[in-house]
Design goal:
This protein has 68 residues and is an all-alpha fold. It has helices spanning 6-16, 42-47, 56-60. Helices cover 32% and strands 0% of the residues.
Length: 68
Amino acid sequence: MMAKSKAKKMREKMVREGYRNPAKNRGIYALADLRTRRSKSKREKQYQDKYGELSSADKMDDRSFYFV
């Protein structure tokens, strides 16, 4: 069995003495994970670059010249 932390002992003492449990003062969003996660689609996996997305202008710029 693990030892109780000092903070937990203080919370339990406050509850015993009739005070409100501080854990109940936390908002409803304190423990909720509000981030939306989405896995990459098959197309995104196929087109991802090693160093991030490049703009179409960067992809077209291959530094080649055409002389007539």
